[in-house]
Amino acid sequence: MSDKPEQPPAAPRRKLHSPVTRAAIAVGVVAILLVVLLAAGGSDWLAQSYRNDNDSEPAAVDPPEVVAITPSSDRIVPLLAIDITCRAAHEAPDSLTYEWSATDGAISGGGSEIRWTAPDAEGLYRVFVTVTDMKGGTDDGSLVLTVRKNTPPEVLSMIAEVGEDPGWVIPGATVRITCDAQDPDGDDLTYEWSATAGTITGHGPLASWTAPDETGMHWLTVVATDVYGGSAKRAIPVTVSRGEPPSIKGLRLEAIDTHEFTQYRDDWRILAERKCAIEVLVADENGDYTYEWSSDRGTIAGDGPNAVWQAPASGTSTIVVRVINSSGAASSTSVRIVAWSFSSCCG
User: Fold this and answer.
1) DSSP tag of 95
2) What's the rounded Cα separation, in Å, for the pair 210 and 245?
């Protein structure tokens, strides 16, 4: 008989279920739970849970945002009509509506682009816009516009390059003309050229003139115009001669009854209704010449190479002198003088 203690009998081995069996058991458990839940009135809870998962409210839509309000022009004169465009950001830009108003002036059109006609007075004006979407979301914007009168351009100088002998050319000669004009508002300028005889062709501030066969004094004219209709005109005479005319060296001007007489570029400025003396200088002071003086404004009295001119009440005058030798050949020169008053310059 062995001394070893007796071992207890081994526990019986537990039989494990296969994966298929476990899946079937799980489905059965779920089915039992659903039956119990439906019996207890859980159908409403299931339907509400399904709606919460699948029928949620759509995401909120952001209201419109005014991004920019843009005028078609920054230069606005009284009664000018310009286009104004509003650019707004939104998920559905085609659904937006626009409401426009202004402190003055007239509005026509609608939608994102309108036409605003400026009032007839200078000043600052504001245009407003309210943008609204289909859900009532809005945004506002405004634009400040400056209305001011147009300042016309000014022709500062006009030069005809006629060679070494100023004031005259032979028939058929070609003359290059230069116009120096500026606009105080910075507007673009166009130029229109013309001549009383011969052929003139202009390209902006430059022109070319072919002298005619006809002798005598001929006028070359330029008109500089800005985009708003303001204009300035300048003209100079050129004499066509077959023989060599007198050589003119220039003009000497001197005030008679005023100290308000100054030169500005190639023009002169004098106090209104005052007088000045003008002398034409010729190369041959002892030549046998005839002098013809004229002025488109004011009054002039000539005596040989000298003249006295009286200014008008206002405006610009062109004084011309022709010097003719014994054979009939002539040359010419001119000067512009602007008459001004204290009331016109100081308001």
Assistant:
1) G
2) 19
* pLDDT tens-digit map of 225-268: 999 899 999 999 999 998 888 999 999 999 999 999 999 888 99
Residue-wise pLDDT tens digits, 134-165: 999 999 999 999 999 999 999 999 999 887 66
- Quick one: pLDDT at residue 11? 46
Using only C-alpha atoms, what is the Rg of the chain?
47
- The CATH code of the domain at 150-242 is 2.60.40.10
At 287, is the secondary structure helix, strand, or coil?
coil
Is a pLDDT exceeding 60 seen at residue 29?
no
Facing residues of 244 across strands?
none
8-27 in b/e burial notation, b at 16+ Cβ within 10 A?
eeeeeeeeeeeeeeeeeeee
CA-CA distance, 269 to 342, in Å (whole number)?
A: 13
Q: What angle do CA 130, 75, 64 make, to 5 degrees?
A: 20
CATH top class, domain 65-147: mainly beta
Query: What residue spans in the chain does CATH classification 2.60.40.1080 cover?
Result: 246-347
For residue range 67-78, list pLDDT tens digits in order: 999 999 988 999
Nearest to 177 by CA among 164, 158, 197: 158
Mark out the alpha helices in the chain (DSSP H runs): 19-39, 43-54, 342-346
**Please, what's the b/e burial string for 88-123 (b: 16 or more CB within 10 A of its CB; e: otherwise)?**
bebeeeeebebebebebbeeeeeebebebbbeeeee
Burial class (CB in 10 A: 0-12, 13-18, 19+), 229: exposed
Length in residues, the chain: 347
What residues does CATH 2.60.40.10 cover in the chain? 65-147, 150-242
**Token output for 288:** 């046998």
Architecture of domain 246-347: Sandwich (2.60)
Q: Label residue 50 by pLDDT band (50, 70, 90).
A: very low
